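Q: Could you predict the 3D structure of CMP-N-acetylneuraminate-beta-galactosamide-alpha-2,3-sialyltransferase 1?
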Amino acid sequence: MMVLLRHQRYMTALLSSTTILLLLYFQNYMLVLTYGSYGLISKKVPCACSICVTDRENSNWFSEQYDPNIPLLLNSTNGVLHANVSRWWKELQSSAGNYTEVVDQLFPLFPDKEHYSDAGPDRCRTCAVVGNSGNLLGSNYGPLIDFHDFVMRINKGPTEGYEKDVGSKTTHRIVYPESAVDLDNSTHLVLLPIKILDIQWLISAFTTKNITQTYTEVPSTIKANKDKVMILHPEFIRYVYDNWAEGHGLYPSTGFLSLIFALHICDKVNVFGFGATRDGIWHHYFEKILTSYENSIHAGRFENETINRLQRENKIVMHKGWT
Ligand code: C5P
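A: Sure. Here are the predicted structure tokens for CMP-N-acetylneuraminate-beta-galactosamide-alpha-2,3-sialyltransferase 1:
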């Protein structure tokens, strides 16, 4: 009798705990069904790549530096600068000029669009940022670079004659007047304006062609598709300086700005042609002259450390031409 009673109690306890477990499971399932469909507890997937740049969960450091709301490019509605940006940006230049008057001339002339608003869970926008380092020589990266949706090149870095190592596709070229080169019809000219005169030069290059001199001689005009011109926002330059270069140097280098720009318009960023060669030599792949990014203007060493950290935190993949 005692055995039967114990068995009965055991069965009751088992049944009740199973019922409780089942109820809890059901309640949880209902919660997921109800709130999940409203996106309240479902994980937001920012893109369709295996790892997305803007996936905020995998790096606190990155999330603290990255501002998804920073204006990247100038357009007719966002040209007014915050006082602190305006002061900082104007202090970089020796030339005078009325910023508002100059910016007002930009958008009847160049496309006035909301660019790069096509991010989404179904897209995986891949970008190759190609710097000008000598470590590209002999790398055979050409086909890999060309495989990306966007291929961003910097300053004068040529493709002709170097296709095997650097590829032949260019979707964006980031330049300033002193580094500008002719582009084909499908490439975006992305101007990095360090001074008001740079914006004046851009306007002049597509209209009067009368500006031929900044602190050095500059081309009076260049071959480029006017409808693909973009101008980096001074606010963006200041943001890169503050958040990513952490105030080192006078302003960020073109390569560093291009890389951070890519982090804002791509879902996956592969970086080529940054850093020294295997022998520790810093030079361009297209000339023998030695280069240095550690000077009174750019903080090359700090930028390099930040780039290495971005790689460690899985935000970019560096291709150095050697292992
Ligand atoms: O020399 P230049 O500014 O035209 O090179 C473009 C960018 O490529 C640089 O701003 C730098 O970020 C990168 N670069 C590099 N190592 C080199 C040459 C260039 O990281 N040896």
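Q: Anything worth pointing out?
A: The radius of gyration is 26 Å.
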